[in-house]
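Before any further analysis, backbone shapes were mapped to integers, which produced the following:

***
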Amino acid sequence: MSFLTAETYLLPRYDPMPYAERDVPFAGKTELDDQNVEQPVFAPRTTTGGQTVDNTVVVGQKVHAKVETSSKVSVDINSIMWNHPYGGDVVRNYITNDNVGEVVKLTDVYYHPGGPSSYFNEDLEFYYTSNTPNKIGGLNATFNLVDDNGKFYYGLNASTSFYIEAPKGVSLSAARTSTNIYTNPTNAEDGLLILGDLVNPTNGMTFNATITAPSIPGIWSNIGAGEVNFLQTVATDMKRSDPGSTTQEIKSPDGKMELDTEFPYGDGKPDSNKTWTLDAGEPRKFSDPYDPLKTVDSPQIPLELNPKVDNVKRHYTTYEVDDSYVMYLMYRPNGNNENDNKGSIWIPLQQIAWTWKADASWVWSDYYSKLIWDTVSDPNAPSVPTSYTGTSVTSITDFPTWESNVKVRLKEDWQDIT
């Protein structure tokens, strides 16, 4: 029966591959010869013989595998069992939009009665989110074949292997300034509590990043080209109280992380829709004088002494904020041409967790001889760091997920809690 095994093979396709200026057929079936080919086709892949354009996949690209035979037998598609792909973490999908961030695992999609490492399906689709030091990955399948006479051949095997490339030289760091209060010059009863400095314009948090896009060592191609951006999640908790017993809050539900406004996050400037593109092997740095890879955040709360609530003036003299944030550096490879990301997913590379805890009270100032907005901080509170160093996202359990957007929360009315 060895001829059946020899002529049976797995055909993964990188769906779609990134654009590369090449026109080299592979075993008569090319994955994607040039940018004019819109639909990739299946072809055998193996790491035997060293790394090439055809046997390389980048984290974030879809791998689509199926079993095929070239002899006069057919595959019993109901018998195909896939082993879990090796060579790095994988997901079936990673959904990222303004309303939902969700990791879809292979076990969420494929039938797996034998446990979480074996899947029964006609084909298998997945994305690598990381690689291993030797950069080699692949997968194996077990299946049955049937010939024209209806005879079955049981328990046959096929395998495929390929090289997995990921971004290099990745770093994320941040610098922080202090919290300040500013008073409305035309109405002293209104103010602003902000992480940052409005007098000497300084953002509260500045995030600096570096990255080098993936590439194939020693081979020119544009495999690894793509884009890089930022993503931030937040669990917000804001309260305001009056001198009596009324306290109101705006709070993320159950303390869960929500998307901070939009994704991609961009450079932190309103409505900028900033993104950074990369060619294969190209570095991007925060120190670039023309297009720095950096973003900012300056969270703030308007202070209103006498806002109208249900058309009745309230008198709020204390505001508090206790927010938790995580900023991520994200990468997504190109799709089937250099400006197309269809079929690929975003991959978080590094993260920084940080918090903003502050308060403001309407208090008497001996210096100004009047009531003003001022901070009344806890003298025993731990010191806040002024700099941060990012940590690598090493597991899909660390991927940012969310079920709602904080911008919706901030548009809602304050809710009475006492």
Residues 1-9, 14-39 have pLDDT under 50 and may be disordered.
